[in-house]
């Protein structure tokens, strides 16, 4: 980690020199607390041979913490003024700055390939950014992201929790996630009106050979009407409530259950049952509880 991290005075001075007035639209709340930077870098569990991907380096607070901890840092910043100024604040040969929108970056832009995502994310696009990067960069072995506390709670929630939903299941497809603590508003400039939370995750191999898009279609349908039973919620997706029921039974899941009680593996089992019965033909057995059903 670099010796000199940025405190409140440095952050204000840097912003004034660059003529940067933080905007809400880009989620610009800059960290000005060296202890929080040290905490994030430590909690990320980085190895010296890791290649870190930082989304939204801003004025460089976290970037300064990352450059000494890994062998290379890719920093993706959408704001051209901040991207242009970063090499001056963080003069390190092992830093590559990408002036780009993280929602649209492609794997081919990153050499060496990123192994860890570490970021204080722009809160308005945090979930789509994390899911896009996990889909686009299978080289990521894990990461640590700071997001709005409420979003952190959703990302780490498990089945049965009130806040378990689409972001929880989709993140679980790629990774095991856990909370790494809360961060108070006072460590940011400007001070946000929400608490923040740290989410740590380790990539995992998705279960089975079902396409991610097929599984995510079931997840989206199940949570679009989360209060309904799966038989009802999945009827549009399945082409009728009867077929939804048959696919659920074939997957070993009660048609009366709700999406909020299912693991990502169970959503994959439903997609798997549909794959075996694409046009409503006889389902073949898929496990202990599978039944042959007519369509
Ligand atoms: N990492 C810095 C820190 O901790 O002080 C800044 C974090 S600030 C919460 C979010 C940063 O993400 C801002 O610098 C903002 O310009 C940038 N940003 C916003 N949307 C982005 C996007 N779609 N792609 C890349 N960067 C983005």
TrEMBL record:
Cellular location(s): Cytoplasm
Protein's UniProt name: Ribosomal RNA small subunit methyltransferase A
UniProt keyword annotation of Cytoplasm present: yes
Entry keyword annotation includes Transmembrane helix: no
Organism: Paractinoplanes atraurantiacus
Family: Belongs to the class I-like SAM-binding methyltransferase superfamily. rRNA adenine N(6)-methyltransferase family. RsmA subfamily.
UniProt catalytic activity: adenosine(1518)/adenosine(1519) in 16S rRNA + 4 S-adenosyl-L-methionine = N(6)-dimethyladenosine(1518)/N(6)-dimethyladenosine(1519) in 16S rRNA + 4 S-adenosyl-L-homocysteine + 4 H(+)
Annotated EC: 2.1.1.182
Protein residues bound to S-adenosyl-L-methionine: 29, 31, 56, 77, 101, 120
Residue numbers spanned by region Disordered: 273-295
PANTHER family assigned to the protein according to its UniProt record, in alphabetical order: DIMETHYLADENOSINE TRANSFERASE, DIMETHYLADENOSINE TRANSFERASE-RELATED
Domain Ribosomal RNA adenine methylase transferase N-terminal per the UniProt entry, residue ranges: 36-205
Entries under Pfam families matching the protein: RrnaAD
């Amino acid at each position: 980690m670099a010796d000199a991290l940025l405190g409140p005075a440095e952050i204000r001075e840097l912003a004034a020199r660059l003529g940067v007035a933080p905007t809400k639209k880009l989620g610009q709340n800059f960290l000005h607390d060296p202890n929080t930077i040290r905490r994030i870098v430590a909690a990320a569990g980085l190895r010296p041979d890791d290649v870190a991907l930082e989304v939204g380096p801003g004025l460089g607070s976290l970037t300064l913490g990352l450059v000494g901890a890994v062998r290379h840092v890719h920093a993706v910043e959408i704001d051209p003024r901040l991207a242009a100024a970063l090499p001056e604040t963080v003069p390190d040969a092992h830093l590559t700055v990408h002036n780009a929108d993280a929602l649209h970056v492609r794997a081919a832009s990153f050499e060496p390939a990123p192994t860890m995502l570490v970021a204080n994310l722009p809160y308005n696009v945090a979930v789509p950014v994390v899911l896009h990067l996990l889909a686009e960069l299978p080289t990521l072995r894990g990461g640590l992201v700071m997001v709005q506390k409420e979003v952190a709670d959703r990302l780490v929630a498990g089945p049965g929790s009130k806040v378990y939903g689409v972001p929880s299941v989709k993140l679980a497809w790629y990774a095991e996630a856990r909370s790494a603590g809360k961060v108070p508003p006072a460590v940011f400039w400007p001070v946000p009106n929400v608490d923040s939370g740290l989410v740590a995750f380790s990539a995992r191999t998705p279960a089975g050979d079902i396409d991610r898009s097929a599984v995510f279609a079931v997840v989206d349908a199940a949570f679009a009407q989360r209060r309904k039973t799966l038989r009802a919620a999945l009827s549009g997706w399945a082409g009728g409530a009867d077929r939804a029921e048959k696919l659920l039974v074939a997957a070993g899941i009660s048609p009366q259950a709700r999406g909020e009680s299912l693991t990502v593996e169970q959503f994959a089992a439903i997609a798997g049952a549909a794959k075996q019965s694409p046009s409503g033909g006889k389902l073949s057995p898929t496990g202990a509880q599978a039944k042959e059903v007519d369509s």
